[in-house]
Amino acid sequence: MAIIEIKIPTDNEEGTTMKVQNWLKGVGDVVAKNDPVLEVETDKVTMEVEAPEAGVITECLVELDQDLQPGDVIAKISTQQDRAGGNITDETINEADEAPMAQARVSSVPVAASHHDTTIPHETRLSPSVRKFVQENNLDVSVIIGTGRGGRLTLNDVKNYDPSQARKPATPSTATLTHQNVPHSNMRRSIAEHMSRSVATAPHVTAVFEMDFTAIIAHRAKHKANFTNQGVKLTYTAYFIQACVEAMKAVPQVNSRWHDDFLEVFADVNIGVGASLGDKGLVVPVLQNAQMKNLLGIAGDLQDLTNRARDNKLKPADMRGGTFTISNHGVSGSLVATPIIINQPQSAILGVGKLEKRVIVETINNQDMMVIKPMAFVSLTIDHRVLDGSQTNRWLSRFVEVIENWPID
Asked: How high is the pLDDT of residue 191?
């Protein structure tokens, strides 16, 4: 019988903190090669650790919230034989997925509050430590709110659950203030530390301009189908990235990093784009070498990063090397956000507000006229150690100029 160790990948950035977030498989489960076994949360992304070979899990060696290092062994699998003594095959794996073994490990958890034999849905996957705690404390998992990925229960969820608060009726005369303590995730702690450090490090100043979307709306309408035929979604963010490249040519110092003795100005324009993960937080995947790409190349790379962010498939390498960041905060409804905190150690961050139709006064044939145009506020928040107001305004002026004069062809 061959035993294979499942290890934490060793290609993570040095110094990255990692914690066990959720077990996806347990002892006795049959896994195929590259099946996800464990979710690990770093200070930047949530990633899955996969089985290197097909087999049966024989040991789970780490607990939820345990700190991890690259190369740590988290589980062991037998790659030669199944429980019946035969060889592990695709057929064995398919049979295990279809019924009794995987379902039994969740349906065996007692449901105390229901007072009858209720089976937990197969989709409810509990880690070994969560399952043990639930069994020992006779908890009804159907009434506990999960804060893990996909709503899964974590060990903190079940430990912090107060059965006395379950389904308690609230009336005007008897209602009491209830609450739930939601533990901070590793990502949320990292965001808090990073934002606090940025504000403490850099004096933030923000300039705000208005921007007319008419030209890029027309260009997108004309070329969207062609991009789609090539498998690429053309979004406004792709235009913003290309306009940032042009603005960097006008004020290269925006694409820089402050050092005590010098300013490091980068030749490569590596633009991070904030992607919301809902209540979990925010990740900023980086589009590398934007200055070398046309609009199609930018849109394609952006689509890939966005899709993998949404599916929790980003790797630590996808988050490295950024020299500038875009916060497209308008997609969630805000007109202006200020200051948008700089993503250290960068020198500036662009904010794009909500696109909306507004009445604008323009001079047409020497007459002031009110016209309706698609407008948004754009802001540049800068590290005032690096940039002054004139440089900030010059960068924004060029950025707006590129967007507003985008050729339709």
From this structure: 81
